[in-house]
Amino acid sequence: MKILILSEYLHPQTSGITIRIEYYIKYLRKFGHEVIVYGPGNCPTANRILFSIPFYYINKDIRICFPSFQLYKDILFGKYQMIHIVGPNLFLLTIIIYLFCLLMKINICTSYHTNIYEFLQQYIENHSIFQLISNVGYYTNYYPTIRLKIPILHPENYTDLQILCPNYSKGYILSTGIDHQLFFFSKNFIRNKLISIGRIAPEKNLFRLIDLFSLIQSDYTLDIVGFGPIESQLKDYVQRKNIENIRFLGRIPYDQLYQFYQSAQAFLCTSLNESYGFTLLESLSCGTPIIYPKCRVFTKLYQKDFPQLEFDVNDDEEFLNALTYVQENTQILRELSRKYAEKYSWEKSTEDLLDIYKQISIF
């Protein structure tokens, strides 16, 4: 199959969207499919370059792409069996690409990955402005896709379509994988060492993480890996609260993260807004138990296997109980964590993606 993937989310970004798309591309090519990737010029995976500008407001790593004549020419003459547009995107003028593909009878689909509605609530306090931006987002991102009946692919826990498009029935579910060779199991860890990995951003609820750690700071250490728009505010908060034993390690290359997962006794998460949460699965793959908050996504994914590690993010006692359970059952939890992660693979996830491509191919 000859496939064109158009994505603003590629390495060196480290978002969950980027991880998913990079592994899809890797395994599609490994399976023998021809994959042409359009993306920003700073992304080595992209073998076709689009003009782009950085999007500093949300994430300085993100680059907003603009369509090009070469893109339309390639779609017209490239003889692709599938065009896959990775969203969300702002200025790619996807409606023109949709119409172009429909007119030329070329199979096309769009995948959405981030719950933008919940995400923006963390950044925009003014309700009127939030509603305005939400409406603009709906009519630019979702309305053309649904109106033109473009197949929509998304993770299982994606909620934007339910909130913004209540009449929309259902998209095609993207399964998830993990790189077991990169995030390999280790029995070695440092007792009483905790880890948090991810973007340092409002939606991650990290001020609450700091408050929870303050309850145990005399007995534990906490490493915070990542960067983001509230990094300086979070460091100031730690300093004002006189909280000890916290290290901010900044950005770590993705292929080195496994060392940090493996060294910790537990991974801490306080985020309530995720469409999946790859860091938790990466931690489990390394054998490091997760202490996770009660929310729709994590409850669905982890409560059945790790009920004792779930806590109400606003309940100090529940957090301490989960931590105590880790202390008392570390060895068995490390084995169960790895066993859970072994259910997922990017090879199987990419096979599922190919099955979706076949289902939605009409030309």
TrEMBL record:
Residues in domain Glycosyltransferase subfamily 4-like N-terminal? 15-118
Cleaved signal peptide residues: none
Family matches, as InterPro entries: Glyco_trans_1 (IPR001296), Glyco_trans_4-like_N (IPR028098), Glycosyltransferase_grp1 (IPR050194)
Keywords (A to Z) from UniProt: Glycosyltransferase, Membrane, Transferase, Transmembrane, Transmembrane helix
Question: What are the recorded GO MF terms, alphabetically?
Answer: glycosyltransferase activity
Q: Does the keyword Glycosyltransferase apply?
A: yes
Q: Does the keyword Transmembrane helix apply?
A: yes
Tell me where on the tree of life, at the top rank, the source sits.
Eukaryota
TM ranges: 89-108
Q: Glycosyl transferase family domain spans which residues?
A: 191-342
SUPFAM superfamilies assigned to the protein according to its UniProt record, in alphabetical order: UDP-Glycosyltransferase/glycogen phosphorylase
A Pfam family name for this chain?
Answer: Glyco_transf_4
Protein name from the UniProt record: Glycosyltransferase
Q: Organism, per UniProt?
A: Adineta ricciae (Rotifer)
